[in-house]
UniProtKB/TrEMBL annotation:
One Pfam family named in its UniProt record: NrfD
Name of the protein in question: Sulfate reduction electron transfer complex DsrMKJOP subunit DsrP
Gene expressing this chain: dsrP
Family statement: Belongs to the NrfD family.
Keyword match Transmembrane helix: yes
Length: 405
């Protein structure tokens, strides 16, 4: 009964906290709300007319939605790079950032699920994937494995921070015996969500572009580069506009993680390029289309070469110690690396897998205004949720929010 009373008090205090703030905070939340409303309007058109309003077709059946889903799975998995040092290795330098990282993971996972619903056409078809009601097809279907690992990881990233913040709200220390087992599970689960997503693509034999043994490891490398890069940018904003102070050494330690992951990602990219182009076969046509175009079709060339250029530039900047330790340069490198990997794991991975189709026909894909509107709406939803979570967590961690007995 007492815990319910404390929980009720936490909800009321949290609502009071997230509805108060500076003009800049209200403007930010207002902009996100406006973008979400645009996304809802675009989604209502999709619900009325179906997926025909998107740029997808029977030739290219995955587009902007699944591209963002794939990328955000990596952003969610990246929280493990803060969870493991903090909860398992007891590195106090990561302690200030770990709750922010887990909040980012929760937001990313909610966006992942939203993009899946958007790609399915509408929420009414979700019953097909409910065990006992629909045809869940477990354990044969990799898609069902993906459903399980994503929802399981979402539960872990909600429950662990909630327990810690719930204790801190009462002025008590969290018991390590309660949250450490969950943290250990989440470390392996984070790797699992990305590998299972990679296996979804690798298991499609008719799409040789994805039949690559490096796909899973490269998913992890790019995730551990883009995710912590985004965390660094978020921490930079938080320490500039809130009372929650993040030390330089915390950001610099996360930057080391980004650097190593970005370097490994580049090495794997070179390995893939060698495999595709040193001794090309007809299975290399998708890669040729992506990097050089096929039969005059070159829609993805600007995207992929921009991505590679930004990726290489960011990795070079991060590799040099003096450049990486300059925080303004670090933020710039993290920003362009994040954009580069978003392109690479989006348009650079999903779309070429369908081009050319199994019979050799080249049908190019470009997203429609409806797709872009829905996508921006979902990203705004994620930013909105993260802002709420971060504002509440920061208020508790700074002692501003406490249970009044």
């Amino acid at each position: 009964m007492r815990r319910f009373k404390v929980f009720r008090s936490l909800v009321i205090d949290s609502l009071d906290t997230i509805t108060r703030g500076s003009k800049r905070y209200h403007l930010w939340m207002g902009i996100l709300t406006f973008i979400m409303l645009i996304g809802m309007y675009c989604y209502s058109i999709q619900l009325e007319h179906g997926l025909s309003v998107t740029g997808m077709s029977d030739k290219v059946s995955w587009g902007l939605y699944i591209s963002n889903f794939t990328f955000l799975v990596g952003v969610a998995a990246a929280a493990v790079m803060l969870v493991m040092p903090t909860y398992v290795l007891k590195d106090i330098d990561f302690k200030q950032a770990v709750l922010i990282g887990e909040g980012l993971a929760v937001s990313a996972l909610i966006m992942c699920l939203a993009f899946v619903i958007a790609d399915m056409g509408g929420p009414s078809v979700l019953w097909h994937m409910i065990p006992g009601i629909g045809v869940f097809n477990f354990p044969n279907s990799m898609l069902t494995w993906d459903v399980l690992v994503l929802n399981g990881y979402l539960f872990l990233n909600i429950s662990i921070p909630f327990y810690i913040l719930f204790r801190h709200y009462q002025g008590k220390e969290a018991k390590s015996s309660v949250y450490i087992p969950g943290a250990l599970i989440s470390v392996f689960w984070a790797v699992g969500i990305h590998l299972v997503t990679a296996f979804l693509y690798q298991g499609l034999q008719a799409r040789p572009f994805w039949n690559n043994a490096l796909l899973g490891p490269r998913f992890l490398a790019s995730a551990f580069a883009a995710g912590p890069a985004l965390i660094i940018l978020v921490l930079a904003i938080i320490r500039s506009y809130t009372a929650f102070k993040i030390e330089d050494k915390t950001i610099k330690k996360i930057a080391m993680v980004v650097t190593v992951a970005a370097q490994i990602n580049i090495i794997m990219l070179v390995s893939e390029l060698f495999k595709e182009f040193y001794a090309p076969t007809h299975h290399s046509e998708s890669a040729y289309y992506l990097f050089f175009g096929l039969d005059g079709k070159t829609a993805l060339l600007p995207w992929i070469w921009t991505s590679i250029s930004m990726n290489v530039l960011a990795t070079i900047i991060l590799t040099f110690h003096k450049l990486r330790n300059n925080l303004k340069v670090l933020y710039f490198a993290c920003f362009i690396l994040f954009i580069a990997i978003w392109i690479e794991k989006g348009f650079g991975l999903i779309v070429p897998g369908f081009i050319p189709e199994p019979y050799g026909k080249i049908v190019e894909y470009s997203p429609t205004g409806i797709e872009i509107g829905v996508t921006l709406g979902i990203w705004a939803l994620g930013a909105f949720i993260f802002t709420i979570l971060a504002k509440t967590a920061i208020s508790i961690e700074t002692g501003e929010l406490r249970y009044k007995k």
